[in-house]
Amino acid sequence: MESGFRRLIGTDSNRRHLRQLPVFRIDPKLPPSFDSLLEDIDRAERKSARRNRSRPA
Fold first, then answer.
1. CA 50 from chain center: how many Å?
2. Model confidence over 29-43: pLDDT tens digits?
């Protein structure tokens, strides 16, 4: 299943679609609490991704 997703993600059609999406950046005018929340989300996503990679398929 994982290899199927990798093939799908790497298709030219998907790359074209992703290139057309807007680039999201953190607004520098955000209150510090929002910036902190976004950093917490990033950390949780990285931790989850590492955990998922270490699981056997």
1. 13
2. 878 888 888 889 999
Angle at 16 between CA 15 and CA 22, to 5 degrees: 95
Sign of the dihedral through C-alpha 47, 50, 56, 57: positive
Residue spans per domain, the chain: 2-54
Confidence (pLDDT) at 55: 66
**Of 52, 29, 49, 51, the residue nearest 41 (C-alpha):** 49
Three-state DSSP at 57 gives coil
In this prediction the pTM is 0.44
